[in-house]
Amino acid sequence: MTERNDDRRTVKVSKYLSKHLRHQPDRIGMRLEDGGWVEIDTLLAAAAAHGFPITREELDRVVATNDKKRFAIEGTRIRASQGHSVDVDLGLPPATPPAYLYHGTVARNLDAIRVEGLRPMSRHDVHLSPDRETAIRVGARRGRPVVLAVDAGAMHRDGHVFHISENGVWLTKAVPPQYLRFPEKH
Predict the structure, then answer these.
(1) How many CB atoms lie within 10 A of CB 43?
(2) 112-150: per-residue pLDDT in tens?
(3) Is 52 inside a domain boundary?
(4) CA-CA 20 to 30 A from 76: which of 36, 101, 105, 124?
(5) What is the pLDDT of residues 78-110, one digit of tens each?
(6) Structural domain for 66, as ranges
(7) 149 in a domain, yes or no?
């Protein structure tokens, strides 16, 4: 297999894992255990039985090379690090956030965000980035990015709970509009 084909396969496997470890485990006959974990052998067997065989080497490559560290392996189990739409308690302890966190979005969402703040939408939590550069990359997935600053320090002082995922994404249930700082131009 050429390097380009190998890269394409790695992306396909990563998307497949995201879909089934974060959103639709039941679609391939899996049930996530506490914390979102599933036995690796169970995952590989389920993928093969549903027409998408994955080798252990491919799985290990996806986990090791994913720049966003979307997946975690612990012993004989694997899970998605965050971003679930299925009910999963990742068991992350509360954490004290930095003074500011960031959220990448696009201009067409700003009017709703000004009124409603940031909501988790189809996920369990709002995802926040530790720096502007990461937030820009996140926002750019949907168009020209707009970065909002979140006064996480004030939120925390006011009783809002934060968690940090294994891959460095900050999570909170919602961000009310009064804690958001909008850019001057967008």
Answers:
(1) 21
(2) 999 999 998 877 889 999 999 999 998 998 899 999 999
(3) yes
(4) 124
(5) 999 877 777 777 788 999 999 999 999 999 999
(6) 3-80
(7) yes
